[in-house]
Amino acid sequence: MVNQQALATTAQPLSKDAEFESLVLRYQNSVYNIALRMSGNPDEAQDLAQEAFVRAYRSFDSYRRGTSFDKWLYRIVTNLYIDEVRRRKRNPYVESLDERITMSGGGEVDREIADLSHSPETVYDREHLDMCIQSALAQIPPEFRMAVILCDIEGFSYEEIAQIMGTSIGTVRSRIHRGRRGLRERIAPCFPARSGEVRPT
Amino acid sequence: MTCNMTQRLISAYVDRELSEDERARVRQHLALCAECMAVYEMTLEVKTALGSMAPSPCPECLWECVRDQIAMLPFQAEPERSSRLSPLRAVWSFARLVVPAAIAGTIVAIPLVHMIFGVSVFGPAGPRQQPLASSTPPRLVITTPASEESSSTRYQPAGGAAPGRTASMLSSSSLLGLDTAINHSEKSDRNASSPHEQLNLLLRRMQDSSFTYTWIGGSTHE
Ligand SMILES: [Zn+2]
Fold first, then answer.
1. What is the pTM of this model?
2. Rounded-to-integer distance, Cα B47 and Cα A190, Å
3. Which of B10, B39, B66 sits opposite A24 (nearest CB)?
4. CA-to-CA distance for A20 and B162, rounded, in angstroms?
5. Which residues of B touch A199 (CB under 8 A)?
6. Domain of B139?
7. Facing residues of B182 across strands?
8. ipTM of the complex in this document
9. Which of A7, A157, B58, B184 could covalently link to A32 via disulfide, CB atoms 3.0 to 4.6 Å apart?
10. What is the pLDDT of residue B91?
11. B87 touches chain A (CB under 8 A)
């Protein structure tokens, strides 16, 4: 048995695994964060992040060294999530901005939206505010959501987002424009004091 | 520039993703149009709100879970990997097949040898014991090389005997992390013509109790 274990560890090309581990440790927080903002659900985010890393490992040999690992990784996350949404929902393009996206987590996000939007006395509590924004995010189509997250949370340029999402800069511009337009009215209730004068800029 | 066009460019304006020309035209329009200015401010608010969200650190177990899942990968059927099997992986695949078989062989062989020939592979009082020495010929030396790679016990005539005389028996002690080779130090094997006969002869001699055990790690026989 000792023999088997010794063989099992030496059979792995250590340099590759060590390199991969260091990359995972470096990017796991941002990958998880993107997954969380996309899914709105910590459990789902963890599954998504894990699956993304496992896929990344499997095709790690095809990843060209020197190219940006994070973009390559976020592309895997993006494709995974959008494929997952498509798989769950037969016809993703039918969903409009007015339609609520039900979360796999059991609609908790929807309930939070309702609570917050129906209570104008919502406080400027950081946690509540984040939940409110998260709820707004959940209501826009996944492609718009991903583009906006990559732009506003991860700080990528349109060109980088186009690379990550495998699309043109023009499409990215359109997605961000429409995504933010959808978010404008939904985020407004998160700032109840914004009746005219106070504005967090 | 119309309000409609301006509002379509506002997001890119906020992100500084417009050409200098477009940028100047949007700026001009915003200076004159309150409605578009309001859209601009709300857009900026959305961007600020998203950027201000507290980052959630990933669960501590994330890497561990990934590592566990990865550890299970190499043995799954994976078409793009099987084509380029690394030498180490090939050794491992081979070992996976051979090692259990060798262990099973050992488990069977040790009592079998003991039963049939009345010989304990470990010597009179079990392994790691320094047995009594006897220098009477013919002498048989049981050695345990440190190498764990070989999984067969070799009954090898020492002293320049022909290679054909070597009897090999599929009896491994890799289960115990040691490999037993019995060196038969007889000058000539007059009667033994086949490896099997030679082995029998050898074991018969062993029963005559005129042999010596030598264990690696212990001192050699006198
Ligand atoms: Zn205007």
1. 0.55
2. 14
3. B66
4. 53
5. 41, 45
6. 126-221
7. B142, B155
8. 0.72
9. B58
10. 58
11. no
